[in-house]
Design brief:
- The structure is a single chain.
- The chain is built from 7 helices and 10 strands.
- α2 packs antiparallel against α4 and α4 runs antiparallel to α6.
Length: about 350
């Protein structure tokens, strides 16, 4: 078997939660690994932080696609419910519980047949744990943990608003409402919640006459107000230009800033920071003083942004590369020398 150096994800989050930036970067790689397995018809059924390792180069590895045999300790006590082993007998049969209790889906906890949506549930539980530093489903015994999986509803306000929609779809107890494909997960971080329309296909919705009149009256009022505002606006004098001074400090103990670039939307900036181990790229929000290292950008030079502010391009080791602004593995685009850029 492959020897994978580095700590497990469980070791990384043992003492404190991960920053949102780092948690999403790790989650993207976990999702890519699970998506690859699902594409080959493989369901992991035991995804948890202890089965995820992070190499020194920040590459994430999902391990242990086998299921451990259920065992008891020397004194005959139940195993730790937060990291319980699994049952392997009759693994393909319904009515057999599979998986680690704290990360099992409701259908697994009930002994029903599990498909790839069980991995999507576990993915949501792992992401929750990275963001909060705590296991989502807890209990004194394995039975208590399984009961929490089936009945407990997460406290959504404990996680950043940006990821709540994604987590709600991953942690839906109703299989019909749960996300069906892990590859679609990242669209839920960017798109707004859809608003259901009252009409369906083949159904004509007719508004009451009074409602139509009310909307017409409202339109007239809004038109008059808009004309008034336009008149006032054109009477105003243009504001005086002001010069804003902004101090750009290097990350603590990271070295000195050699280059930087501001994203087109003005929300982030990327910096080339020279350190003892060589230059690397760091990114930070313009309204924050905390910067995050972008793993995989060693020797990065001449960083620049994509027009949509989602990716950072840079030159390194005779190649043109890109990396997502919120982290993840760097991708090589082509061979290129630094100093010449095409805009």
């Amino acid at each position: 078997m492959e020897l994978v150096e580095g700590p497990t994800l469980a070791d990384r989050i043992k003492e404190h939660p991960l920053p949102e930036f780092e948690a999403l970067a790790i989650a993207q790689q976990i999702g890519a690994a699970i998506d690859e397995a699902h594409a080959k018809g493989i369901v992991h059924r035991d995804l948890k932080p202890a089965n995820v390792k992070i190499r020194p180069d920040s590459m994430v590895k999902v391990l242990d696609f086998g299921l451990a045999k259920l065992s008891r300790d020397r004194e005959g006590a139940e195993p730790d419910p937060a990291n319980s082993p699994t049952v392997t007998m009759g693994a393909t049969q319904a009515g057999v519980i599979l998986g680690t209790a704290a990360y099992m889906s409701p259908e697994q906890a009930r002994g029903k047949r599990a498909d790839k949506r069980a991995d999507i549930w576990a993915f949501g539980v792992v992401l929750w744990e990275m963001l909060t530093g705590e296991q989502l489903f807890q209990g004194e015994t394995i039975t208590d943990v399984l009961a929490a999986v089936v009945r407990h509803e997460p406290e959504w306000e404990r996680v950043p608003a940006k990821v709540r929609r994604l987590l709600r779809r991953c942690l839906a107890k109703d299989l019909a409402k749960r996300l069906r494909d892990i590859g679609d997960a990242w669209e839920l971080l960017e798109e707004p919640e859809p608003v259901p329309l009252p009409s369906g296909e083949g159904i004509r919705v007719v508004a009451p006459r009074r409602a139509v009149l009310a909307w017409a009256a409202a339109a007239v009022v809004m038109t008059v107000a808009a004309v008034g505002l336009a008149f006032v606006h054109f009477q105003e004098q243009p504001p005086k230009q002001q010069v804003v001074q902004y101090t750009l400090a290097a990350p603590e103990k990271a070295g000195s800033i050699q280059q930087f670039a501001i994203s087109p939307d003005g929300q982030h900036l990327v910096m080339r920071v020279a350190g003892d181990a060589g230059p690397e790229l760091w990114v930070r929000a313009t309204d924050s003083l905390q910067a995050q290292l972008l793993p995989g950008t060693r020797n990065g030079d001449y960083p620049f942004w994509s027009p949509d502010s989602r990716y950072i391009g840079f030159f390194a080791d005779g190649k043109l590369k890109k990396i997502a602004a919120n982290g993840g593995p760097a991708q090589t685009l082509c061979a290129a020398e630094p100093g010449i850029r095409t805009v």
